[in-house]
Amino acid sequence: MVERDEITSQVQIWEEVVEIPTYGVGEPEQNPLFLERRVYQGSAGKVYPYPVIETILDECKPQPYRLVVLENAFVRIEIMPEIGGRVYRALDKTNNYDFVYYNRVIKPALVGLAGPWISGGIEFNWPQHHRPNTFGPVEYTLEEPADGSKTLWISEIDRMYGTKMTAGFTLHPGKAYLEIQVQLYNRTPEPQTFLWWANPAVVANDSTQSVFPPDVHAVFDHGRRDVSAFPLAKGTYYKVDYSAGVDISWYKNIPVPTSYMAYHSNYDFIGGYDHARHAGLLHIANHHVSPGKKQWTWGNGEFGRVWNRNLTDQDEAYIELMVGVYTDNQPDFSWLQPYEEKSFKHYFMPYKDIGMIKNASIDAAINLEVDSMKQSATLGVYATSAFPAASISLAGKQHAYIDEVASLSPTQTFRATVSLAAEELPSDLVVTVKDAGGQILATYSEAATEPEEVPEPARPLAPPEELPDNEALYLAGKHLEQYRHATFEPDPYYLEGLRRDPGDSRINVAYGTFLFRKGLFAASETHLRRAIATMTRHNPNPYDGEAYYQLGLALQPQARLDEAFAAYYKATWSAAWQDASYYALAQIACIQGRYTEALDLVERSLLRNLHNYQARHLKTILLRKLGRLDAALGFARETIQLDITDFGAYNECS
């Protein structure tokens, strides 16, 4: 156990056991519940092989929990490996403000995919929402790099689809933000779908306002089934009449349980602000990979107050300000190809005193408010670390209104109000914040935009026989697979396409892969061979090798290893399938005792995909079996540098 040191400007990390009032849960259901047709958060609610808990106990008792605490001069972060690895508390020490909702009691409700779920903190949802193991324990380890930062790493393998998540929570010296770096890895030979939604909660009251980027003009409901203008709703949304024009960025204006997700934004931030406390939360991430920006509330009405009592004993209401990576709606799944890793970073930070920001980076946040009646502008700037001689400018087409050098830090914000020239337009103004060395910390300029039309909501998928062509049938089937649809199956769409054209290569590959997932290997083989026959009608070397790769997968469990070996080798002719196919070839070579050949094959796989951890583990084993012990140990240590939670590499090092 890491003992707590005296807190200085440096980062400290330690573990401590605290007692938290807790409402217990019942025993897991002993018999497996498949729940194949349950609809949950817009997609399939099946949970097998996870056990389901269907009872919450009425009695509240103190219960010990082991927390991992990260702390520096500005923030204190408490994380609970025993409950999903969630951030339990995030405190801005400079103003004693909990910038995520701090629930002082563990009071589960049956909201989660497998039962119990708690409110507050920051929950991490993967590979779907809410995460199957949101109330369960995760593996974890602590890291203290030489740069003075400290990191808690958590890791979990999803039992339903076999993918792996590793996340590092890092606090840096002198930085008022929490960095979270995530690796999502598909450990399986088949493509898998996933989403990632981080779910921070913040206190909600009459002074709470969501901070969406200024280019968000429309928001969608789950599955894009409804749409509203934003921030001024002007129609009916969630059966509430907003036709008078109601600003739904304010919690107080939403009377019923409501979700909304940004239609589109070119900005990297989302947040929330408490105008009474003059403080709030910001999330920062690259919008090209993190487009998801969502608010959820139980509603500022009696129903919401009932649910607040269900989830806490003494704390206030809350809203959730969710952020999606590789997803912008719920459900909205992306693909992980066989043995693919996707990695990303995002940041959570407090901010204060400057109101509704217009742009932000991990270094600084900017608010610019133009009063057209007074022809004035008010500029506010907040920084996440100390910048003692920052350059702050506000310039228009007519004049330079602000050009100052000022100290910025988490305790020193900048605010100034200036009069604007009569002919100056808001879209003429440009804010630039630089450090003493001239590096840009953040910028903002208001785009001159025409009023945007509100997009149309999604339309229900038509029955297979009503779709016009095989292109539509193929895409419909893939959509249903990708989105884990609860009540529609993809096979009627594939079968209708094959009825119209039995040789359709794309549908035969898709349906053959679908049958393989169901364990129907011989039937899968039939369709994959039919696809290959179509693709090789005019030449023996098709553009894409997936059909050969999937054929190898279908042949291998039928104990036809030589045929599978040939199919995999043909798949390597396609660059897209080389890493997975060479790895499969190495596996067969191992089964047949050809270790030297297997080592060559697995190295070819790693040339295409260095982060194929299954292949890395196989290479380590092969080096050991071939007597190259130093090389095996060195390669295992390299793997740990790439994934600090790779259990196989640790086993080889032991």
Structural write-up:
With 654 residues, this protein is α+β, with helices and mostly antiparallel strands. The chain has three domains: 12-211 and 261-352, Beta-galactosidase, Chain A, domain 5, CATH 2.70.98; 359-445, Sandwich (Immunoglobulin-like); 464-653, Serine Threonine Protein Phosphatase 5, Tetratricopeptide repeat (Alpha Horseshoe), CATH 1.25.40.10. The protein is 22% helix and 34% strand. It is built from twelve helices and 38 strands. The strands form ten sheets. An eight-stranded antiparallel β-sheet has the order 11-12-13-14-30-26-25-17, with no helix packed on it. Strands 10-16-28-27-24-18-19 form a seven-stranded antiparallel β-sheet, with helices on one face. A hairpin with a 6-residue loop joins strand 11 and strand 12. The longest helix has 15 residues, at 521-535. The two termini are 21 Å apart. The model is unreliable at 1-8 (pLDDT under 50).
